């Protein structure tokens, strides 16, 4: 069957795209005139640059792995061919959006993502999945309305869609257009106050979640702000984006610390990382933010696929208290999940280390307010803590429903490409996409310092929590040991003064040293 071997062709296309990315130097533009009526010309425009080609390669490689993963994962389901066809349409819509050269062409890919995501979420045809798909579709329609308003307001000023960007660069956009650009981006990327639809989208099959949370639907808003940054940049919009992104970053990190559903924890992780990227855009660090978006796509797709394997082999349970991941029974899955989790934490020298800790080093070496530095360290600390919490529960596995194994090699093989990318792609793309960095030895020295600062603040607070937990729960012997931290976190009226002091001291010391 052709559809069962399509992933080999997808892997081949991904390899060709990566070669083109390395050799690509000059941008390419294509335009097609669809309609010219009165003073408005409808033009479909495509534009390829090195950054866009890198993003297309990322989307296609992740789609190839997800498609390969879906074949064994969805083998027992009905209408698998329909599912794979909609999944392909979903990826093509994102690639269409990336290649677009004007707002009208971007809108076509934008709408395609909304429609195909609704079809994928309602795949199981249950009441909950139908409600979730409609809720997700309507929330994304709000972003579509903002997009249409932006196009309408700009078309009233400029005759063609291609001249919109050129004239806005020279004259600047109106304040309403700038605000609508922010709103359409945060709606699609599920930032506060439009973040509720992302957890609803977890009703979709796990392969869909892997593609949605890594490189397609939720990254579309980030990408639009990155490409059309000169339209919306103003002090008011930058301040608004900073407030919303920091709020999303902190709230989603805290939610991930108390959630017990494995897929929702990874979803909250996606929210926090997207909030971090929006925060970078709000302080005008665009290239590093886009680089982190690419690296995040690799290890987040790997994290979702490994989580899906764990759920698939745990009789469908998603509660981390009822799962187990044993080194003796499933060593390969343990390694894959560990690499994706540690890359999220920024462990040297994985993909997340070269992106997240690079940004942290930029922030610490600049003159940004100490409050922003503290909030960044706080969010990074929460990220490390909920990753450690997942590993803690999976390693204990006292209430596990069924044991894990590595017997299903077809699923494991589909994750190996992303496993290699999560290990090696950070260092490869760093010097190809950001060639103007300092020498390698100075960058590595500084990044390792920021990583250990992040880990040390996490461990200091963690051991302090253990002391408080022991004193608080000494009168509750019936609570199991691996539930104590959650019980304390939800019921203890705690103070973060120790965390404040620790974080400020570490930031002060490292700013003095480096």
From TrEMBL:
<feature type="transmembrane region" description="Helical">
    <location>
        <begin position="265"/>
        <end position="283"/>
    </location>
</feature>
<feature type="transmembrane region" description="Helical">
    <location>
        <begin position="240"/>
        <end position="258"/>
    </location>
</feature>
<dbReference type="GO" id="GO:0008137">
    <property type="term" value="F:NADH dehydrogenase (ubiquinone) activity"/>
</dbReference>
<feature type="transmembrane region" description="Helical">
    <location>
        <begin position="332"/>
        <end position="351"/>
    </location>
</feature>
<feature type="transmembrane region" description="Helical">
    <location>
        <begin position="415"/>
        <end position="434"/>
    </location>
</feature>
<comment type="function">
    <text>Core subunit of the mitochondrial membrane respiratory chain NADH dehydrogenase (Complex I) that is believed to belong to the minimal assembly required for catalysis. Complex I functions in the transfer of electrons from NADH to the respiratory chain. The immediate electron acceptor for the enzyme is believed to be ubiquinone.</text>
</comment>
<dbReference type="Pfam" id="PF00361">
    <property type="entry name" value="Proton_antipo_M"/>
</dbReference>
<keyword id="KW-1133">Transmembrane helix</keyword>
<dbReference type="GO" id="GO:0003954">
    <property type="term" value="F:NADH dehydrogenase activity"/>
</dbReference>
<feature type="transmembrane region" description="Helical">
    <location>
        <begin position="54"/>
        <end position="71"/>
    </location>
</feature>
<feature type="transmembrane region" description="Helical">
    <location>
        <begin position="83"/>
        <end position="103"/>
    </location>
</feature>
<feature type="transmembrane region" description="Helical">
    <location>
        <begin position="371"/>
        <end position="394"/>
    </location>
</feature>
<dbReference type="InterPro" id="IPR003945">
    <property type="entry name" value="NU5C-like"/>
</dbReference>
<dbReference type="InterPro" id="IPR001750">
    <property type="entry name" value="ND/Mrp_TM"/>
</dbReference>
<feature type="transmembrane region" description="Helical">
    <location>
        <begin position="210"/>
        <end position="228"/>
    </location>
</feature>
<feature type="transmembrane region" description="Helical">
    <location>
        <begin position="6"/>
        <end position="24"/>
    </location>
</feature>
<dbReference type="GO" id="GO:0016020">
    <property type="term" value="C:membrane"/>
</dbReference>
<keyword id="KW-0812">Transmembrane</keyword>
<feature type="transmembrane region" description="Helical">
    <location>
        <begin position="146"/>
        <end position="165"/>
    </location>
</feature>
<feature type="transmembrane region" description="Helical">
    <location>
        <begin position="446"/>
        <end position="473"/>
    </location>
</feature>
<feature type="domain" description="NADH:quinone oxidoreductase/Mrp antiporter transmembrane">
    <location>
        <begin position="100"/>
        <end position="378"/>
    </location>
</feature>
<feature type="transmembrane region" description="Helical">
    <location>
        <begin position="177"/>
        <end position="198"/>
    </location>
</feature>
<feature type="transmembrane region" description="Helical">
    <location>
        <begin position="289"/>
        <end position="311"/>
    </location>
</feature>
<dbReference type="GO" id="GO:0042773">
    <property type="term" value="P:ATP synthesis coupled electron transport"/>
</dbReference>
<protein>
    <recommendedName>
        <fullName>NADH:ubiquinone reductase (H(+)-translocating)</fullName>
        <ecNumber>7.1.1.2</ecNumber>
    </recommendedName>
</protein>
<keyword id="KW-0472">Membrane</keyword>
<dbReference type="GO" id="GO:0015990">
    <property type="term" value="P:electron transport coupled proton transport"/>
</dbReference>
<keyword id="KW-0496">Mitochondrion</keyword>
<feature type="transmembrane region" description="Helical">
    <location>
        <begin position="494"/>
        <end position="513"/>
    </location>
</feature>
């Amino acid at each position: 069957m052709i559809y069962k071997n399509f992933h080999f062709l997808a892997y081949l296309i991904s390899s060709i795209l990566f070669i083109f990315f390395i050799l690509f130097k000059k941008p390419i533009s294509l335009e097609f005139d669809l309609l010219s009526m009165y003073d408005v010309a409808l033009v479909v425009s495509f534009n390829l640059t090195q950054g866009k080609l890198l993003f297309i390669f990322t989307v296609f490689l992740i789609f190839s792995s997800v498609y390969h993963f879906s074949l064994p994962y969805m083998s027992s389901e009905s209408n698998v061919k329909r599912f794979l066809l909609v999944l392909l349409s979903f990826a093509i819509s994102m690639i269409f959006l990336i290649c677009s050269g004007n707002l009208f062409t971007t809108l076509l890919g934008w709408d395609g993502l909304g429609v195909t995501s609704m079809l994928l979420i309602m795949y199981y045809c249950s009441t909950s999945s139908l409600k979730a798909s409609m809720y997700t579709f309507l929330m994304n329609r709000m972003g579509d309305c903002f997009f249409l308003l932006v196009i309408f307001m700009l078309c009233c000023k400029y005759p063609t869609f291609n001249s919109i960007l050129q004239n806005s660069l020279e004259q600047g956009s109106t304040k309403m257009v700038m605000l609508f650009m922010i709103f359409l981006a945060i709606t699609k990327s599920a930032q506060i106050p439009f973040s509720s639809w992302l957890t609803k989208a977890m009703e979709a099959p796990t392969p869909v979640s892997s593609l949605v949370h890594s490189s397609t639907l939720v990254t579309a808003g980030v990408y639009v702000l990155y490409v059309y940054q000169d339209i919306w940049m103003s002090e008011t919009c930058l301040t608004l984006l900073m407030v919303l992104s920091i709020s999303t970053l902190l709230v989603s990190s805290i939610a991930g610390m108390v959630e017990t559903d494995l897929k929702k924890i990874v979803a909250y992780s996606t929210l926090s990382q997207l909030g971090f990227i929006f925060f970078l855009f709000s302080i005008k660090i665009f290239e590093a933010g886009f680089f982190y978006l690419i690296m995040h796509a690799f290890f987040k797709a790997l994290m979702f696929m490994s989580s899906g394997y764990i759920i698939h082999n745990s009789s469908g349970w998603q509660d981390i208290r009822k799962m187990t991941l044993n080194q003796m029974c499933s060593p390969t899955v343990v390694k894959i999940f560990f690499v994706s989790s540690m890359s999220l934490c920024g462990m040297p020298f994985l993909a997340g280390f070269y992106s997240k800790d690079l940004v942290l080093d930029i922030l610490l070496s600049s003159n940004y307010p100490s409050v922003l530095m503290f909030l960044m360290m706080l969010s990074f600390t929460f990220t490390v803590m909920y990753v450690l919490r997942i590993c803690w529960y999976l390693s204990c596995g006292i209430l596990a429903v069924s044991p894990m194994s590595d017997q299903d090699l077809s699923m494991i093989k589909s994750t190996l490409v992303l496993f290699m990318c999560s290990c090696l792609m950070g260092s490869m793309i760093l010097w190809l996409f950001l060639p103007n960095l300092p020498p390698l030895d100075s960058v590595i020295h500084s990044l390792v310092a920021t990583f250990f600062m992040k880990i040390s603040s996490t461990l200091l607070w963690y051991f302090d929590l253990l002391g408080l937990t022991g004193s608080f729960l000494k009168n509750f012997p019936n609570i199991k040991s691996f539930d104590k931290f959650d019980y304390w976190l939800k019921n203890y009226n705690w103070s973060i003064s120790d965390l404040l002091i620790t974080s400020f001291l570490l930031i002060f010391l490292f700013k003095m040293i480096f």
